[in-house]
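Hey, can you fold this one?
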Amino acid sequence: MKQRNVLAMVSPMSSERVSGIARYAKEHGWNLLIQDRLGHHPLAWNGDGVIATIRSDDAAFKSIKQMMRRGIPLVDLTANRPEVKVPRVTSDHREIGRLAARHFAEREFRHVAWFSSGWGNVHRLRYEGLAENAVEKPFKWIANDEIADRRQSEWRAFVEWLRVKLAAAPKPLAVLAYDETDAARLLYAAKELDISVPEELAILSIGNNPLVCENQSVPLSSIGQNLERGGYEAAALLDTLMSRKTGSTKPGTGNLKPILIPPAGVVTRRSTDVIAVANPTVREAMEFIKRNLSKPIGAPQIADAIGIRRTKLDALFRTELSRSVGEEIRRLRFARVKLLLETTDEPVSAIARQTGYCTPSHLTNAFRNAFGLTPKFWRNLR
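Sure. Predicted structure:
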């Protein structure tokens, strides 16, 4: 079989995406050319297939259209340009928003906001997912749309704009930022405004680049996008298209339903590592529950651990959360079970051990009673 020549046009360069593409290429003997910020260079390229990030860059888009017109199979890695009708493998951006909402709800945040510098299709999908699962409708803060006179690049104008937003918003507030750059801007501005992170303002980013997240004044919690898997599956889809030898990448042809890659989960760091309840005793109790979910704990053990009478603890939970200690333990256990089902391939037996259920059948029965589905069936629906 002739060796296939494949072009990966990935901009901005993403080591995760490229690693996934390169792994598939190596397994299947491709000759892989990787380019970023390509300008007009690939216009004369005439290989067997292309994997691209189709964005707003005019030169890159012109190159892509030229190759499409020549019938070269192409797979897009993004959801930025839905009007361009090509096969896609992209992050499940709505599910990223839903996951953020669940992360905030687990920490008892009622008040939630979205923050981004700009607005486009990916921003919209993430915001809609956040709004679907949020306890209350999220605020929507888009800096470039709201800061007048094109001053969004001026730091003082941005800080003043954010000061007005934060002053008007209820606290504590949890904010989902579009990416780590926006999250870092928000964190830096909060520090200038003397707003405590995460106690007054919790910040969750998207991307989970450890170099960025772990080197902030407050390390940033972040949602991993599973980009390596996305790159690998895009390469597999391109392989299928090249094998068909149809050249069907012109607008309106081929199977155009996108393949959506679920997020890898939330990596919790200091910026969201807080329980948003006012009563310090309840907050201490909930922190104890979170640390000991794998153990057979109940209200007596929690009351002993924090030095309070059980009846007093139950009364505080009813007042603060409108549910009992036992109900809160079950809620947090089910939240952890769902997260593990969504973001790992661990068997139900391992998940049961990590979440305080003595046997897999105990977890299965409790889950079915609560949600009407077994854990395995629920996982298959995600």
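The chain has three domains: 5-91+227-261, 93-225+266-272, 280-381. Let me know if you want another pass with a different chain boundary.
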